[in-house]
Each structure stands twice: as structure tokens, then as C-alpha cells.
Amino acid sequence: MNLPTDMVKDNPLDIKNIKEQQDKDIGLQQEAEKYADRYTSKQIGTVDGIICYVKPGDAAASWKIRLPQLLLKPTIKWFHQVTGHPGSKQLCMQISSGYYHRDLRSLIDKFHCEHCQRNKLGGKGYELLPECESTINAI
Fold first, then answer.
1. Count of CB atoms within 10 A of residue 90's CB?
2. DSSP letter, residue 122
3. What is the chain's Cα-based Rg?
4. Which of 28, 36, 44, 58 could form a disulfide with 62 if both were Cys (CB 3.0 to 4.6 A apart)?
5. Any alpha helices (H) in the chain, and if so which ranges?
6. CATH code of the domain occupying 13-111
7. Backbone angles phi, psi at 97, to 5 degrees
8. How many helices (H) and strands (E) does the chain have?
């Protein structure tokens, strides 16, 4: 992904940053211990010990990086900006394709972008279209 310099600099998903925040997140550490069958440790690049989540019943290869609490809001904001200000459903799909936190969906639903609020079109959205007039004449 080619991003502007400021977007790369502000990226909360730098793997070293994720590891540091995971190590500081006591709740995450306790959860990973309590539910050892759902968590695994991975090496990503040169960083070892990244805590990852596997949904019960899914294949072990379908792990996702477990986001620490402090990175949730910055991740949502960053992803929203980088991916072109999508709606909450699309944003959730994009983030949850590689990352996991049980509160992710509810925090995305509560997220409000000032830019989007200022520039959002009013009204209900799409409504019924008028009936088309046929230009084909019967022979």
C-alpha cells in the first residue's frame, strides 16, 4: 500500500507498536492465558511474540492479530482515513479481516468522523426510481 508520508508516520498498526501495546495490556495478557485455546503467539517479520486470536471452530491458519485496548480508537480512525472514509459496515469488514478485538464492531458503530459528518449528504439515501418509459414501439 503506497501511503502519504504522514499516513505512514501516524500508522498505529506498526508491528513493533502493536507488540509494545500488547505487552502493556494486562487485560489482554489475562485473556490470552484464560483462553489459551483461542490465542497463539506468532512471529511477524522480525517481531516475535505477537498475540493472535483464532475463532473457536476455525482453522489454526485463520488467525488475526489481537488489537490491544489502547490501539482500538487510533486504528479505527487511521483505517477510516486511509480507506477513503467508508461506512461502518465496510470499515468493520476491512479491519476485521486481519485484526480482532471483541469490542471492535461497537466502537466502529460509535465512531464519528468530523469530515464525513460535515460533508454527508442529507436525506434517506436511495428511494424508488420513477417508472421507465418504453421507447420501443410494438409492430
1. 14
2. P
3. 21
4. 58
5. 5-9, 15-24, 26-34, 72-82, 88-96, 104-110, 114-119
6. 1.10.340.70
7. -70, -25
8. 7, 4
- Three-state secondary-structure class, residue 52: strand
Residue 11 reports pLDDT greater than 70: yes
What's the DSSP call for residue 54? -
CA distance 96 to 51: 15
**Domain locations along the chain:** 13-111
User: Whole-structure pTM over 0.90, yes or no?
Assistant: no
* Amino acid identity for residue 6 in this structure: D
Amino acid at site 101: H
Task: Give the type of residue at 95.
Answer: I
For the record, the C-alpha cell of 58 comes out as 476455525
pLDDT tens, residue by residue, 25-67: 999 999 999 999 999 999 999 999 999 999 999 998 999 999 9
Phi and psi at residue 51, in whole multiples of 5°? -80, 125
CA distances from 120 to 59, 66, 84, 86, 93 (A): 40, 32, 14, 12, 21
Cα 25 from chain centroid?
Answer: 19
CA angle, 36 as apex, 19 and 48 as ends, to 5°? 25
Residue 134 has pLDDT above 80, yes or no: no
